[in-house]
Amino acid sequence: MTASISSLVVGPLENNAYLLEAGGECLLVDAADDAPALLAWLGGRRPAAIVTTHRHRDHWAALAEVAEVTGAQLVAGDPDAAAIALGAGVQTPDGVWDGDVLELGGVTLEVIGLVGHTPGSIALVLAEPGEPVRILTGDSLFPGGPGKVIRPEAFETLMSDLVTKIFDRFPDDTIVLPGHGLPTTLGTERPKVPEWWARRW
Question: Cα separation of 11 and 161, whole Å?
C-alpha cells in the first residue's frame, strides 16, 4: 500500500496544508487560513482526521469550519491541544506524542514530538517499504534551518529533538515537507546542522 501526499498553499502566510490518502481514506494536516479553499480541495471527501501540527493560529484558522463540515476527528500534539481548542473554538483535539501512531487506510503514521517552536509541535512520519521516508514537520524544520523560537532554551530543545529524533534516525533521502515553503531532504540539510547550532537559529 502506497500513500499519496498532496499539498495546497493557503492564506496570507502561505501555509502548506497536506492531504494524505491511502486505502480509500484521507487525512488533512493543518486546516490553515482558508476554509473555502480547503473544502473545495477536499471535494466532498471526509477526512478520517484533521491533524494540527502546532498551536499557532495560521495553522488552525480554518479548523472550526472544516471540522464542522466534515465531522473529522481532531488530533494535535498533547501539550498544544488545549491551546488549539481555546483559540479555534473547537473540542479539544485528541492528544498524541512520541510513540503514538495514526492509522490511515492500512498505512501507519508515526508521531514525533518536537519541543521548541511550540511546546507541543509534532511531526508525522510516513515510512513505506521501497519508498523514501516522508516527514511532515510543521514549523519545526524548514529548508535552511529549524523553526523560529522565542527563548534560547527553546532553541536548545528544538535542535536536540531534531538531531536525536529526526537526523539521527532517518537517511539522507528522507523528504521533509514543511509547514511553509518548498520540500527538502535530510541529506540537503544535514551538513548545515553545525551552522544552525553556531548561529543559534
Answer: 29
Which residues lie closer than 8 Å to 137 by C-beta, 6 or more apart?
53, 114, 123, 166, 176, 177, 178, 179
* Rg of the Cα atoms in the chain: 16
Residues of the chain whose pLDDT is less than 50? none
pLDDT value of position 1: 61
- Provide the pLDDT for residue 75: 98
The residue assigned the cell 490511515 is: 104
Cα separations in angstroms, 3 against 87, 105, 118, 133: 31, 9, 28, 11
Domain-wise residue ranges, the chain: 4-199
Record the cell numbers describing residue 27, joined without a space.
487525512
pTM for the predicted model, two decimal places? 0.97
In this structure, CATH architecture of domain 4-199: 4-Layer Sandwich (3.60)
pLDDT tens per residue across span 59-85: 999 999 999 999 999 999 999 999 999
Angle at which helices 63-70 and 35-42 cross, to 10°: 30
Residues 125, 161, 59, 90, Cα dihedral to 10°: 90
